[in-house]
Amino acid sequence: MTQIAQPFGVRIRGTGSCVPERRLTNNDLTKLVDTSDEWIIQRTGIHERRVCDPSSEGTFTMARDALKNALDMAEMKGSDLDLIIVGTVTAEMTCPSVAARVGAALDAIPAAAFDLSAACSGFVYSMNIAQALIRSGQFRTVGVVGAECMTSIVDYTDRTVSILFGDAAGAAILTRDPDPRIGCLYSAMGADGRGWDSLYIPRRAQEIPANDIDNPIALGNLRMNGKEVFRFAVTKFREVIEDAMSKTGLTPESVGQVVCHQSNIRIIESAREKLGIPKEKVYINIDRFGNSSAGSVGLCLDQLWRAGKIEKERPFVMVAFGGGLTWASGVWRV
Fold first, then answer.
1. Most exposed residue of 9, 12, 13, 163, measured as fewest CB within 10 angstroms of its CB?
2. Measured between alpha carbons, how far is 107 from 81 in angstroms, rounded to an integer?
């Protein structure tokens, strides 16, 4: 956990996002697995999610387009970037990184580039690291992206996972600013690897723990112990938001927005109600986009930013949790 005290600030100069055109509705899923529209909505809040066309779309293309949209808002070019960070667990290749390919596509040479793997926490982790690198003086302008083609790692014969996930990317451009009041006021990141097998993607049979050996999900696809993840998320989500607000003196009345990872509507609503945060201050888009892992917080941020709901007068909180098990938060003033 880090409280920020520096002689300069970090400004969010622009945001962007990208989602595929194709929609996969709950009714579409009833043709693939034993489920129903009512069952999915009741348990997750999801009505539909976006799905990449594997012949022309994926994590790279979404990350590229989301960052290009953020650069356009910032009225900047790829060559203005010093660093690109892409939070993802669905890179098409281990090497090269998605970030390096995005840098080449956007003429960001010779900007440094790397991918960050923190599952659903990936965008918030990346934002926290980017702002710290800017404050350190090593970088001046950083492009941050959270991008996931989750449908490429979902076994559509499995009901527990296939109903949840969709594809999306969100991005932000961060720059050094002379005003120390601007930027990240507080950040926190954490992990508990003891729960790794609650949410994991095994590539080889020997990576599967004994308690999951009979799981019929194909290798290379996401496996999830829904009950364990839900139990962890309900508690940790609330704790992380509460910690971020208490460390910065924010109250339900003074916070601008709480930009949450779109995991499950019941998890989000449970945390919101227990913390007494007004409904209009917790943005929800899981009904239309599903859970897009590292793509979700960046997508929400861009939609809120473009709608004029990120206020200069009120700091906003970003919060996420995911595989690892990981969690992260960041409190920002714009």
1. 13
2. 9
Q: What's the CA gap between 273 and 143, in Å, rounded?
A: 34
Rounded CA gap, 252 and 272, in Å? 10
Place of tokens 């970030």: 99
Write the CATH number for 250.
3.40.47.10
pTM for the structure as a whole: 0.95
Alpha helices of 257-317 — where are they, by DSSP H?
Answer: 265-275, 286-289, 295-306
* DSSP label at residue 218: P
Range of the domain at 210: 1-334
Judge whether 244 and 316 are in contact, CB under 8 Å: no
pLDDT in tens, 138-173: 999 999 999 999 999 999 988 889 999 999 999 999
pLDDT in tens, 25-45: 999 999 999 999 999 999 999
Rounded Cα distance between 186 and 173, Å, is 19
The tally of domains found in the chain comes to 1
Residue 184's nearest CA partner among 246, 115, 122, 129 is: 129
**∠ Cα 127 132 136 (to 5°):** 150
